[in-house]
Design brief:
alpha/beta; Alkaline Phosphatase, subunit A; 3 domains; 3-stranded mixed sheet; 47% helix
Amino acid sequence: TKNEEEYMMEDAIGFKIDDYLIKPVNPKQILLTIKKLIDNKRLVSEKTSMAYRQDFRTLGMTLNENLSFSEWVDVYKKLVYWELSLEKLEDEGMHEILTVQKSEANVQFSKFIEKNYLKWLKNPEDGPITSNQLFVKKVFPSLEPKKPTFFILIDNLRYDQWKMINSLLMDYYRIDEEDSYYSILPTATQYARNAIFSGFMPLEMERHFPKMWQNDEDEGGKNLFEEKFLAEQIQRVMRKDCKYSYNKILTFEQGKNISENLNNLMGNDLNVIVYNFVDMLSHARTDMAMIRELANDEAAYRSLTLSWFEHSPLLDALKKLSQKKIKLIITTDHGTIRVKHPSKVIGDRNTNSNLRYKQGKNLDFNSKDVFHVKNPHEAMLPKLHMSSSFIFAKEDSFFVYPNNYNHFVNYFNETFQHGGISMEEMIVPYVTYSPK
């Protein structure tokens, strides 16, 4: 067209045209437009694959170095970046190379955790921020007068899943700080999330709150006292008046109710909202055949998370909050990993059922698959019996008893589990936003 009127351009864009050329047209402009329309997918694929091949060597050399905890965060984020980039391409070869490199990274990461985790607990200043330090080191110092902070904890949200939901937030918020912290072991809700809200490690919780702390052997819910833990931590650490609220969202209706009553929370300094959906999704993937079909691999699992978030009352609430003067924090308690390698374990009938960690007496296991903590107190974990110990599955292995071995291997193989040691479970997002 010769028409240069702005309204014409806007109309054309509104009708989703592929390109807009104004006469006189340079032949190279036409060639560029044709290439963009016909060859775009191939060109992007070639460039992305080439860029990953170059980075593959650099990443490979990095994995052989003596990395710090912050460098491991960088490695994991780089691997997730390539995972999300390559997922858009139809290059199975590149996908397989990345999968192998990610597995090798988890082998080295597990060695790193085995070597350093107990040292961090003895000397916390030498280690990363962990679950029990999250409020003291990150949340409390960031609170501002007359500016409510909304602390949203989406249970079991991996870094790659956060990247997906973050794309929907960018129209409403800007990121002030994209950070990470390390979940404590076991990377399971009853340990990690209780540690976040109490500010204590599990052993300290058992000592300070004997009536509220629930061990693996105890019956009943294991996360029933988070609000009381939070109240006690606020009083203990801040030592000043801090108006706060705590809400746990387990159903769509509860989420909708919070979204419709946000104004009631604007007078608080801190509003904690725990969302359980993603954790329920990972468990449902194990239990329900339909969900297993819908989330049959990493990409599908991310897509399902994005679809949930897009249609959830949580996004609706965050859109409303973006119109107000607030601070937003999105984080989680632990991540999850897709397990692929069964590892035999034998324990007594009181041994817990989690597939990624076991606590019990006289455990028999394959030592190369686990991080064995002989004395739980060294890991700041309760010791139920004199001979009790903990084992944590490394990389992508999962524990299976010899009884009905093949049945359980087939049932749990390639499901998403948590409780053990992997980058996906331990390195989790902590992101601060401001409304645009």
